[in-house]
Write a structure and sequence with these properties.
alpha+beta, three-stranded antiparallel β-sheet, 9 strands
């Protein structure tokens, strides 16, 4: 696993007033990155989640922004801030941020629906509580009909490292969204079942690829975050317990049946 370490090259261009208040930073590779940074000790655990989620998304072969560790120079902050290394997602062009007012721009096709089903399954597996009806955490490339998965700070039941993983309910997921309903509205039950059937093999293959990647997570995590490697390793290993893997699949299919049947 190779994640580049970049430096900011000019003052922060923009601050986003969403939950983590990320900042837009022009970096030494001549690309702009949306960066999340240390704001508290709890924020460090959410940064760890961002790193783990982004790498696991790669193992699942998702469209997801490239990430980098970014050193934001003190002179480039408008006000003093923690100097710890941030984690940045490369800003993408030609994409639409999916919101309740824009989700109808997503073409209702087998391709987009399959992508959404895979992302929903990933969220069940990662216990991601932040992708739901009110907050899709998705971008959309209109030209290529690609859904782009972003933001992983709330995996592990919103960065809960001290307790075991717990299953999501359907209302915690993108399956509860108008976007999902728009994508299935003209599909027959038989066609939907045909899309879901191969997901079991896909899921197990993704989990296997993720397992091969997981051992490297702790090695690349910046020491300035002060997140104990033993804590991260213990939490990540829960994803690969057979009881969790089987439980996720049952929960996903149950929630899917509930939503499709309505």
């Amino acid at each position: 696993m190779s994640i580049p370490l970049l430096d900011s090259v000019k003052s922060i261009e923009r601050q986003y007033y969403t939950g983590e208040e990320p900042v837009l930073v022009m970096c030494s590779d001549k690309n702009a990155y949306i960066c999340k940074y240390m704001r508290s000790s709890f924020a460090a655990y959410k940064l760890a989640c961002e790193l783990i989620g982004a790498q696991m998304a790669k193992a699942w072969h998702f469209n997801s922004p490239e990430i980098a560790f970014v050193r934001i120079r003190p002179a480039h902050w408008s006000k003093g801030n923690n100097a710890a290394v941030s984690i940045g997602s490369k800003k993408m062009v030609g994409v639409v941020d999916i919101t309740p007012s824009t989700n109808r721009e997503v073409k209702s096709s087998a391709k987009t629906l399959t992508q959404l089903l895979k992302i929903a399954l990933f969220d069940f597996w990662m216990a991601n509580e932040d992708r739901n009806a009110n907050n899709a955490n998705l971008l959309y490339n209109v030209e290529h009909e690609d859904l782009i998965s972003i933001d992983y700070g709330c995996i592990f039941n919103t960065a809960t490292f001290e307790f075991p993983l717990s299953q999501l309910t359907s209302t915690d997921t993108i399956l509860y969204s108008d976007l999902f309903q728009n994508l299935i509205r003209d599909k027959s039950l038989a066609s939907l079942e045909a899309m879901v059937k191969p997901l079991r093999a896909y899921y197990l293959a993704c989990v296997n690829r993720s397992l091969q990647l997981s051992a490297q997570m702790v090695k690349v995590m910046p020491k300035e975050w002060n997140v104990p490697s033993i804590v991260v390793d213990k939490k990540t290993r829960q994803l690969f317990e057979s009881e969790w893997i089987d439980g996720v699949w049952c929960n996903f299919t149950d929630c899917l049946t509930e939503k499709i049947g309505k």
